[in-house]
Design a protein that fits this description.
Order of helices and strands: HEEEHEHEHEHHHHHEHEHEEEEH
Number of domains: 3
Structural class: alpha/beta
Strand order of the largest sheet: 1-2-4-3-5-6
CATH superfamily of the largest domain: Alpha/Beta hydrolase fold, catalytic domain
Strand content: 15-25%
């Protein structure tokens, strides 16, 4: 384990480890109130088994490099880490149902932790995406033992981000849903990662498949319950209320550090979580970098920032976090800047659509309306965007120019 830890320290530019003497207790059985057993791996120091505890709950598995990367940097720096597989995933009992069991299962797990003789009385949670949502699911009810949270590239509302602009985000949900339907029970394995090329080709076919209700069959040859539920229930359907914890964000007492990316599908909702905490009189921290959801370029930075946050609020070590709460990577300038709050100070200006698709501060003259042709079978492509899957920051002007030449596309003007 020390070799893995040293490699992670070098790769992520982490501060020196306190110890490489880490014991990993595999397949710890944690009973839920309904009798279901969830499995966890417990990373703890051989010399001090009563360090503060970090809880990480994952639907993607807990073994191999993925598990080590989540746990080792913290276990080697004065924490014990419990990495638990969510219900119905990677050997844990029960059936995985999208976001439905994370509140009850998470609180039952925290109650179990509090009863263990190795628990010091200090608890923290961290990690991102679904692993970030499970933090929000329990944060308001976890009790005073919860000292800090670090939800990354995620949101407290695990419903509405799938319906950006009111329409289903097909790229995000079809890909994720079919992946979880086929692989949740075993967890993500190396073989599944190596098969991503073949899977990507099937997804490209499925994105254009009609009827949409059978697109999941194109990818995995069977229906995906997670995908079908999004087609059956719109974003404001009552059935989604149990997976939306945005109304409880203001009740969270532990300090929160939110980390996101400008090209992450969760960003808009993560910023709402920040503003909800501010409206409740809290002082969360916020970091937004030039990353997509799946890019690893923020990995080392996020671990370093998380360690500083935990050391400050869990261990009570002052002077490890910056003074200003908001740090943003300014695109174009390509540099980090610090701000006192989000949104940063700005000067508002009103711009008006003009004939021919132009913008100006003056009111538009009377003109004939412009026209455009809409063909749902021929959407405007994108070389990068706010996505759940692969993508990045790319100059989109070549796409817009190509589309304009092909379709004579323009923005309707006001007459």
């Amino acid at each position: 384990m020390s070799l893995t830890g040293r490699l992670l320290t070098w790769w992520m530019h982490l501060p020196p480890a306190d110890t490489h003497e880490i014991v990993i207790i595999r397949d710890v059985q944690i009973p839920m109130p309904d009798g279901t057993i969830l499995l966890a791996d417990h990373y703890t120091s051989r010399t001090n088994p009563k360090f503060p505890t970090i809880l990480i709950r994952s639907p993607y598995g807990r073994r191999g490099f993925f598990g080590g990367m989540m746990a080792l940097p913290y276990a080697e720096r004065g924490y014990q880490v419990l990495v638990q597989s969510c219900r119905g995933t990677a050997g844990s009992g029960g059936q995985f149902v999208y976001a439905r069991d994370e509140h009850d299962d998470g609180l039952a797990t925290i109650a179990w932790i509090k009863r263990q003789e190795w628990f010091s009385g200090e608890l923290a949670t961290l990690s991102g995406s679904y692993l970030g949502f499970v933090q929000w699911a329990v944060a308001a009810d976890a009790g005073p033992e919860l000292k800090a949270l670090v939800p990354q590239i995620t949101t407290s509302d695990f419903n509405h981000f799938r319906f950006q602009g009111g329409s289903l985000n097909l790229e995000a949900h079809l890909g994720w849903s079919t992946m979880m339907t086929s692989q949740a029970a075993t967890g993500l394995r190396l073989s599944s990662i190596l098969a991503q090329g073949r899977r990507a080709r099937k997804l490209e076919q499925a994105f254009g498949h009609l009827p949409l209700g059978k697109a999941d069959l194109v990818v995995i040859d069977r229906p995906s319950e997670h995908f079908q539920s999004c087609l059956l229930h719109g974003p404001d359907d009552e059935s989604w209320k149990p997976i939306d914890f945005s109304s409880r964000v203001a009740d969270v007492q532990a300090p929160v550090y939110l980390m996101g990316g400008w090209y992450d599908v969760f960003l808009n909702w993560q910023l709402k979580d920040y503003q909800a905490l501010r409206a409740a009189g809290k002082q969360p921290y916020l970091l937004v970098g030039p990353w997509t959801h799946t890019e690893a370029s923020g990995g080392g930075l996020s671990v370093r920032e998380s360690l500083a946050w935990l050391d400050t609020h869990v261990k009570g070590q002052p002077g490890k976090i910056r003074d200003t709460p908001v740090r943003l990577y300014v695109m174009g300038e390509n540099q980090w800047r610090d701000f006192a709050d989000w949104p940063p100070p700005a000067r508002n200006a009103r711009w008006h659509l003009q004939p021919g698709g132009a913008l100006a501060v003056s009111l538009p003259p009377a003109s004939e309306p412009d026209q455009y042709r809409y063909d749902p079978a021929d959407p405007t492509p994108a070389v990068g965007a706010m996505r759940l899957g692969l993508g990045s920051a790319w100059d989109q002007r070549i796409i817009a120019s190509w589309k304009h030449a092909r379709m004579c596309w323009s923005i309707p003007a006001r007459s």
